[in-house]
Amino acid sequence: MNRIYVLKRVLYAIFVFAVVITLDFFIPRLGVDDPAARYYPPQGNMTEIEYEIVKQATREQYGFDVPVFQQYLNYLEGLTRFDLGTSFRSGSPRVSDLISERLPWTLALSVTNLVISLFFGILIGAFAAWKRGRWQDTLLLNASTFTTALPAFFIALILTFYLGFEFELFPAYTNPNMVAEFDWSWDAIKVVMNNAALPILSMAVGGIVAYGQSTRNSVIAVTNEDFILTAKAKGLTPRTVLYKHILRNAMLPIVTSLGMSISGLIGGAVIIEQIFNWNGMGTLFLEANSTNDYPLMMGIMLFMSAVAIAANLVTELVYGLLDPRVTVGDRR
Amino acid sequence: MKRKCALLVLAALLAFSAAGCQASEYERRTDASNTLYAGVVASSFPVSFMPWLSRDGIAPTIASMLYSTLFTYNEETGLFEGLIAKEWYYVDDAGEPLLREDGSVDYDRVEAIYGAADKTYLPVKVVLNEGLTWSDGMPVTAEDVYYTFDIATNNTLSNHAGALAWTSDLQHGYSSGTLVEQGIFTYGHGAADMGYAISEEERDTVLYLHVNKVLGAVTTLFSTILILPEHIWEPIVTPTNQLNSKDPTAATLAQYGHPVGCGPYVLDADRSNAQVIVLERRADYALTAEDGSALYKVDTIKFILYQELNVAIYALLKGHIDLLDSAISTNYLSLFEEREHMFVSNAPGLFLQTLVMNVNPVAGEKNPIRDLLGDVRVRRAIALAIDQDELISRILNGSGTTVAAGLMSTANPLIYNPDAILLPEGLEARIAEANALLDEVAPTRDEEGYRTLDGARVSFDILGSVGEQETIAFLQVQLQKIGIEVEFASKGSSPEKTYLYNSKFDMTIQGVTFTISNLDIMYLAHFVTLGTSSNYGRFGDPDLTALIREMRTTLDLEHKYELILAIQSMIADEYYKVPLYCSNVLSIARTDRYQGYVTVRGSTVFNTDTLQNLERRDAS
């Protein structure tokens, strides 16, 4: 892979991250005239002067007492020290601590979901391509229509209602003590697996079908390419044709989907986490949003954006490795 | 090798599925103890309990159970009921209560003494209950109250703007951390110097406050501020380590995590986390029921977090919890009716929904059609056309009550004016009257039957949220009967800034809650103040303004009540905020473990009365 291609991608990622930081700071402030007035509306028989004192104290308390641009500079200065600020919640916990507490739980869900979706998706997709035009293939196509039409949260509600509440095959929602009592013992890991089953299943249904569909289409498209015919004509074994030529080329769209999935690993399960009471990043974001906790909202959005930008960068670099043609333009 | 890897992954997935396929054991089903399982629909639970918690979510509920205010205010009787304190009086300069022979407040003397311009404050004597203790066993004293109010007024130590707001009626103030005006007096803090006699026996139970010269001045002080233990916080709190510290020390965090309060319950920190909060009843809580038994009947309360309402409802239906401490939509009502072991609390609400008209837009936002709303005949016609009963039946499934044009809920019997209903009975007659009124203003109609003014259709937008769309659709049908077209307009995320404060609207849906305790501020905000206030339509009436100002400043409670009744009649007569409905607060509980749930106005089934009345079924 040529260096100019890599350099361009990295510089572009840095530029996007700078834009994200700026938007991340200003967007939560849009639509709010005076955060102080929102926190403490006038009380009792308070005069205007008294109320102004209260509002000023609120501004000082939350750092809104300096001009917005100065707040922005303070925020940037904090970021250089990897300081995302402190949350408004009781006890003023550091945003980075809150994120690091919740992140593993979200990753436990989303990475497992990704592995399951990828594994079964590729398996089913390749199988459907092999059985092209037969009922197995039709089943995948119909399943794809079904899962595209039904959002994951709806599937989650159906699953929790039937498998959780009605038949009690799985926990309907996360055991409230799961996180607090987790100690890496086998019993604790089993509890996590037990509680994660339905949320993962809810997400994986769509994921498997999506990867399956993508793999199927890709494999079929590549199989019909002239170079595959050439490879066969050269006398290569079917195994070599499949692994070296069909699958490698069929991986390109899958890598693209994978990159997008990785960028959504952190924030992609907000509603699923909410339905199953899963104590992860998604619910943390909802908490921040519902309590107007700006530092926490900004911290989470920035973190999610950073992961997405990094995932996209890696995807583009891997893409370049898999298909050197995409870097040709940068060579000139 | 690749095949082996694939098999390994498959085996791992199967193991995962096998481990996952095992139902949870829901604790409540087998719990024989006196433990109430309360589901809460919220985004999170607090894990750190700064005493003056935020106003969001379950935090205030938890705070009110761990800590206590001096009194609780009964909106129905207009009286303060004792908690930490048992009595309070307006007093004369010597600290003697201003009482009539029957023990009631002598408002004539209060007004006679303190109505004079040279009197700048109203002195109040507070007497605490004896024998109250903090959850660590230390006694609750008047010095704790002094410390709490003092720190609340001193932002240098508290760093809590809310506390400044709560104490704005207390004439005790700091400037940059220095006391500039003392308005709290105890045995140890200058009572004798002020001429207030407190005996040695009373030193722990009596204090005096200087408050602003308005009758509502004590309300927030008495019923909002949670009293803090001085012995816990005084050694820790400093200007560099404030009560509401941005960067709390380990000692402060330890107190946040293990709160010491004087409420009926104490936090079981070891069993609580971000998804469960466990409260244990204090065996040494001094307040008892009339028969001497424990005032609160439930030993342990477990709050369990649900982030999704439907999941919480099914958890209740399936017996994972005893009750749901969240109001639910009336759309769910049919789901619970006729079910076994289910208590449905359909409590009358305090929150009124109104239709507000832009009666006085700023100059740049005037137009001939909008100007029609400035005409009281048009407003009355609109009010006449709205059938509240039908609205409640269709939109709230019958779970609500009609509202008088004076905008006071019947839940405030002391100040509710039943005569402030100026609309005649019978919808047909009302529609006829409405049409007659509008014929005086805009008699012509277009081919679709809508009224026109100078050739333009009389059409108004009603600003509303998505949840209010159904209500607005109903109004659309109702107002069509009098030839007025209305359409839904989305409020967006910041309606005040975008539309309401700058007159960029015709009508809007607005929720209002008027109670005895908030009238002083709310009447001003809704009918007098222009600009960034709840008076979106910029209504102004000098007579009403004068009446509201008099109501706020009178020191005679009976006169204040009379003025409130008169204000309602004036409000009703203006049709500026047309009442739509007052929706009930719907909540649910299971009755297979506990009985004795109490329905309380404006509250869910999880309320103080319920906790003081609940009984395990197998205990009876």
Can you describe this structure?
The complex is a heterodimer of chains A (332) and B (620). Chain A contains 14 helices and no strands. Chain A has 332 residues and is mostly helical. Chain B has 21 helices and 25 strands. In chain B, the strands form eight sheets. Chain B has a six-stranded mixed beta sheet. In chain B, strands 10-11-12-1-13 form a five-stranded mixed beta sheet. A four-stranded antiparallel beta sheet of chain B has the order 4-5-9-8, with helices on one face. The longest helix of chain B has 19 residues, at 2-20. Chain B is globular, with a radius of gyration of 28 Å. The N and C termini of chain B lie far apart (68 Å). The interface between A and B is large, with 72 and 74 residues.
The outline of chain B comes out as: globular
How would you spell out the order of helices and strands of chain A? Answer: HHHHHHHHHHHHHH
| Total beta-strand segments of chain A | 0
**Count of alpha/pi helices of chain A:** 14
Number of strands of chain B: 25
Largest sheet of chain B: 6 strands, mixed
What's the overall geometry of chain A? Answer: globular
What structural class is derived from the secondary structure elements of chain A?
A: mainly alpha
Q: How would you characterize the largest beta sheet of chain A?
A: none
Helical residue percent of chain B? 25-40%
Radius of gyration of chain B: 28 Å
Question: Taking all residues together, what is the mean pLDDT of chain A?
Answer: 84
The greatest inter-chain interface is formed by: A-B, 72 and 74 residues
Low-pLDDT runs of 5+ residues of chain B are none
Mean pLDDT over the residues of chain B: 90
Strand content of chain A: under 5%
Termini of chain A, distance in Å? 13 Å
